[in-house]
Predict the 3D structure of the following.
Amino acid sequence: MSKGEAVGVIGLGLLGKAIGARLRDAGFEVIGYDRSAEAMQRFGGRTGEQAKQASRVILAVFDTSDVEDVVRESSAKLYIDCTTGDPVRIEALAAQLAQKGIGYVEAPIAGGSETARRGEATMLTAGDTSGCEDLLSAMSSRRVHVGRVGMAARAKLATNLVLGLSRAALAEGMAFAESQGIGRAQFMEILGQTPAAAPSALRKGARMVARDYTPESRIRQHLKDVHRMQEVTKVPLPLTAAHEALLSGAVAAGDGELDNAALIRRWEK
């Protein structure tokens, strides 16, 4: 049975598709929209421009410029932004909307699309969530409220910095092990018995071993986040600068649409 008015989900990539599925499973009527006709075909539910007229709209687009475009084109009373975006522009947008009596909640999700689909990814929320607690609860069972609007984007960038560097370190360690005659599978078996065996590393390492780069999260998306980190930082980020160059090389090589596990390909001949 549908729960009240339809909810719009705009941006039907990996995350938007997972969010839509979660909400449908929870009994919400969902209308999805994406600029890509192919993405709408893959959504698995109702789609169309009507998503922009929903009173509550969930945003799962690429960046804040896309969020701003959607807001100009839609008429929601409340926006729930799951995009990892620009904290300064997010604050400005939320303030503009508040003057019109329109709500804005940040809700970026830390974790890949498959984790999000299971409702197990951690959601970082900011702003007044009283108008969307039902949606947020359906989307994820794990939430951390980090304060005023703008702070969730900052927190997500910080956690993405650590996650991205850990993936890069894993790829470099695996490449080094191979150069020393230790195969990928054996390296992961060894790694799993050491303090370096973080759950995220084990999952991503398994994909590197299998050379399975079907995207759960894309290299080009993480590169976008790394660019943003460099723009807003107030401290030097030397490791992130090296990571940025590595990701840029992967995108230039045509790997931007692949999963972040494909970073290991930077060491392949």
Notes: The domain at 7-149 is CATH 3.40.50.720 (Rossmann fold). The chain has a mean pLDDT of 94. The first helix runs from residue 14 to 25. Residues 25 and 138 are 9 Å apart (CA to CA).
